[in-house]
Amino acid sequence: MGNLEVFIRVATAIVFILIVSHLCGRLFQYLGQPKVVGEMISGVLLGPTCFGYFFPEISSQIFGKDIMPFLFVISNIGLSFYMFLVGAEIDFNMFTKKVMKKSSLLSAVAVIFPFVFAVLAAGWYFNIFAMPGISIISFSIFLGTAFAITAFPMLARILHEKSILNTPIGVLTIVSASIQDVISWILLSFVTAAAANKGLEAGYITLFGGIGFVAIVFLIVKPLLKIIGRRCEKSGVFSQQDFAIIIISLLAAALITDKLGLYSVFGGFILGLAVPRDPVFSKGLEGKLKDVTVVFLLPLFFTFSGLNANMLVLGNLTNFIPTLIIVAFAFVSKYGSSTVAMKLSGSSWREASAIGGLTNARGLMELIVANIGLSYAVITKDLYSILVLIAILTTLFATPIYNLSMKNVK
Description:
Blueprint: H1 3-30, H2 35-46, H3 51-54, H4 56-62, H5 68-89, H6 97-129, H7 136-148, H8 152-161, H9 168-196, H10 200-235, H11 240-259, H12 264-274, H13 279-307, H14 317-344, H15 349-359, H16 363-375, H17 381-405
Helix pairs in contact: 1-2, 1-13, 2-13, 2-17, 5-12, 5-13, 6-7, 6-9, 6-14, 7-9, 7-16, 8-9, 9-10, 9-15, 10-12, 11-12, 14-15, 14-17, 15-17, 16-17
């Protein structure tokens, strides 16, 4: 293909993706769901599950194999940007002693119990869903991470849309979700290190390289970014020069962590945690980056994930029972354990169920984990499709469970 043809085909695919994701997002908003849930489902609909099944020729023309590498690059850049914004939006002021005590309990339970259930499922289905060369330990840790992850960014949007972000339930849930995701990222880094490298020496490079990266970001990069933040506060402007520094730093962080075998989104997230929380800097950064990322880049990741997921294969006899068991384990282990833990900590059953339902949402984070597993050849495409299904179902049920649990509660 010539350069002009590449541009036309990639641009056509992007336009098609944006139209479908926008329509699905608006439809799900009308149905009382967050817009991002519709965008996530639109990716699956555009893949071999629906569009590719009924219109294979048109699908192959728009989303041909020669186009996928371009979508992969753009979607992963967008994902790194989004995870950077997630890190940048974490409010450390919410981490009070009282909230930390209760959220720590919730986090521990919501990670340990799903992890145990995942290890059981991994033992049963290792020979079916693990790629050749992957150890059962790495496979178990990966599946445990997939079960333990919580949709921190989606959860924040759900809480914001329902105007409960700053309520006791909202603060507790969002703080716990951030803790759960940090733990999950740490676990996932060990899996990717083992899967991406050969030899013990390379594994040590990944492990200590990741620790060194985090240290450099917080000990060197963060103080430098604070200087930019203070300058923005003094001038009252977040300039294009400041924005260029952030973009360059973000891409560099993504490249470094990818080279280390920790995946690019990890670099974006860590850098986001280190940026200043000064009002001018934060508003300027959000104004320049958030809309482009959420409206333009993120739907490309949803679609790329959907194009790799074929839900139809889950209906055959070989995969049907394992799918039911894995989905049930993922749902019950997190929702059930979180609900019981919150009840034992003093919440009413209604509040406990509401928190459990919100915590159970996997959403975008599950898609990221699934894509990492597929990219690093840890899991088969069948298990990838099951994880996508978990992401959709748990996020889809989060709002109804909350509404039902808190009905008539003032």
